[in-house]
Amino acid sequence: MWQLARVITRINRFIGRWVSLAVLVIFALLLADVVMRYLVGTPTIWTAELATLIFGGYAVIGGGYLLAERGHVNVDIFYGSMSSKRRSLLDILTWPLFLLFVGVLLWQGWDIASDALADFERSNSVWKAPLWPTKALIPVAAILLLLQGLVRLWADIRVLRGLPTPEDVFGKPGTPDSTEETAQEVQR
Q1: pLDDT value for 184
Q2: How far is CA 46 from CA 54, 107, 183, in A?
Q3: Cβ partners under 8 Å of residue 137, min gap 6
Q4: Sign of torsion, CA 164 66 77 90?
Q5: CA 64, 69, 70 angle in degrees (round to 5)?
Q6: Distance (Å, whole) CA 113 – CA 100
Q7: Within 10 A of 165 (CB to CB), how many other CB atoms are there?
């Protein structure tokens, strides 16, 4: 089980790091569009649309990475002041909402992707950009997010039981509150 959790976390981190480079591609495409439009005087028909498609893939596939790195937004007014055990308990209690979200994402994403793949869907623009690769990423991203969510659930259960949660297996731990930091400093 440890190995499986480690592999899931590594896959999500690997994908997240590589997909983050897509921002550079998007930047280059939009820069080329500006150069062509204002310096050459001939706008391109494909750069903005391709940048949008790349951003769509970038946004959807990064969910598992964000969960492994605890990069999602929390309401820190309440969550940040809780101890690690209380945060873990809250995460466990809200896990059914996560499961509902990912279930709908997987279900609807599968429908969208299968329809796009069946027709090799293209955009209605002059360029006729292929949409099916971006849409095919939706169920893949949902599966990666679900798997990382299961790893995170296991980590939260381990935190409640007072067991260690190594970062290479479970992803980034929650930030300790000030009393936990003080206790760790006293132990040193």
Answers
A1: 47
A2: 12, 31, 57
A3: 56, 57, 60, 61, 113
A4: negative
A5: 95
A6: 19
A7: 21
Residues 6+ apart with CB under 8 A from 73: none
Name the more confident of 74 and 52: 52
Residue among 167, 174, 170 nearest 154 (CA): 170
Q: Using 50, 70 and 90 to split pLDDT, how confident is the model at 9?
A: very high
Q: Of 149, 143, 147, 145, which is closest to residue 91 (Cα–Cα)?
A: 149
Max Cα distance, the chain (Å) = 67
pLDDT of 2: 87
Please enumerate in sequence order all residues whose Cβ is within 8 A of that of 17, keeping only pairs 6 or more positions apart, or say none.
65
Residue 188 pLDDT > 80: no
- CB distance 8 to 151 below 8 Å: yes
Measured CA to CA, the distance from residue 120 to residue 105 in angstroms comes to 21
